[in-house]
Specification:
The chain is an alpha/beta fold. The protein has five helices and five strands, in the order βαβαβαβααβ.
Length: 142
């Protein structure tokens, strides 16, 4: 993508109830671009090969949940596409996608941190992505 066509990367988690928040934030995205990539990462355990057969049903199910969001975005004048990938860690997949294409920004939903010891010791997906990419990352706390 050229600078003029650089798009926005929007990772979409398995919990797609964030679509209302995405709709609320779309006016801000107009300042960047109308090209959006909806990235959904399917985490696979170490015991499962990343390119393993039998993943077709998982991909179809994930895609069927994201298609309505893509179609709605396209109806709003955006050019949205869906990209499904498998990875061991979600943050790594987002970082890899961000570095493989010229995105002008990454737009992420950030969940509230877990309370207790686990929350203090773990690094969120968003924090990992922010520290690993060169483009700006816009986060919305949900």
């Amino acid at each position: 993508m050229s600078d003029e066509e650089a798009g926005v990367l929007m990772p979409i988690s398995g919990l797609i109830e964030y679509s209302d928040m995405i709709a609320a934030m779309l006016p801000l995205l107009r300042f960047q671009t109308t090209n959006l990539t909806l990235l959904h990462v399917i985490e696979t355990p170490i015991s499962t090969p990343l390119g393993s057969e039998g993943m077709d049903d998982i991909f179809k199910e994930a895609e069927s949940k994201i298609i309505p969001i893509r179609d709605w975005l396209n109806g709003q004048g955006y050019s949205a596409l869906i990209k499904l990938v498998t990875a061991r860690r979600v943050a790594d997949a987002i970082t890899e996608e961000a570095s493989s294409t010229d995105y002008s920004m990454i737009f992420m939903m950030k969940r509230r941190k877990k309370k207790g010891l686990l929350g203090r010791l773990s690094k969120s997906v968003t924090e990992s992505v922010i520290s690993s990419v060169d483009c700006p990352v816009v986060t919305i706390l949900v």
